[in-house]
Amino acid sequence: MGRIICCGLGPGDPDMMSVRADRTVRAAKHVAYFRKKGRPGQARRIVEGMLASDVTEYAMEYPVTTELAFDSPEYVQLLAGFYDEWAERLARLSRAVDVVVLCEGDPYFYGSFMHLHTRLQGRVEIEVIAGIPGMVGCWNGVGRPIALGDDVTTVLMGTLPEDELERRMRDSDALVIMKTGRNLAKVRGALAAAGRLDDAWLVERGTMPGERVVRLAEIDAADCPYFAIVLVHGKGRHLDAAE
Q1: Which of 2, 79, 102, 232 could covalently link to 98 via disulfide, CB atoms 3.0 to 4.6 Å apart?
Q2: From CA 198, how far away is CA 148, in angstroms rounded?
């Protein structure tokens, strides 16, 4: 009886993978990973040159990504069927062999594998290897502490309604905004309304080749990079202040 091992790969730079993740990837004989149709896949790119020569790869191609609204009935139905199918396929494979599923960042932090995790509970043995979340690599790219002292840090999805984003931006000290992409104009508008735009940074492709770190207010409004996170640093008690 095999296992399904979900391996967190960290923020993108292979050097930031854990020793355990590196060892698991190099020893794997069966490797699965998510990707957009026609693309190599971000997780697969991270492990380029690390896989064994006799490895068997399973590319789990999303039936849809940004072509449909994420909350549309058709999108929900297509993705549910996709996850159902791959949960069944992985369950069958793991009856005989270990299958390593690659996951960017940390699997338990907004990882796509969690859609399979819920479907596989009680059916197969699952092991999850922790990874550094992508946002950690991004705020290290800025080179400033994301939060200090009593700062409250909030993680937001750019897919939220603009008024909801604005309210939560006002109520928090440090901000991490994920799923920007086509939502970046909305995120900018919410930050401006909350009085936080001048403090916001955009980090594109954090820790990866082509990394870009810029003030959000300084980039073209039409610029909507896909692999990007917006950060607003907290301003709490500083490191030299008494705790």
Answers
A1: 2
A2: 19
Number of helices and strands in the chain (H, E): 7, 10
The whole-angstrom separation of Cα 80 and Cα 85 is 9
C-alpha to C-alpha distances, 121 to 87, 108, 112, 117, 201, nearest whole angstrom: 10, 14, 15, 6, 39
240 has pLDDT over 60? no
First to last CA, the chain: 52
Q: What share of the chain is helix, strand, coil (3-state, %, to 5)?
A: 35, 25, 40
pLDDT at 218 over 70: yes
Closest by CA to 105, choosing from 212, 206, 4, is 206
Whole-angstrom CA distances from 197 to 69, 160, 164, 185, 191 are: 26, 17, 16, 12, 5
Closest CA to 52 of 71, 32, 29: 29
Cα(127)–Cα(22) distance, integer angstroms: 15
Residue 120 CB partners (closer than 8 Å, separation 6+): 4, 87, 90, 91, 126
pLDDT band at 225 (very low <50, low <70, confident <90, very high): confident
Average pLDDT, the chain: 93
Phi/psi-derived region of residue 238, left when phi > 0, alpha when psi is between -120 and 50, beta in every other case: beta
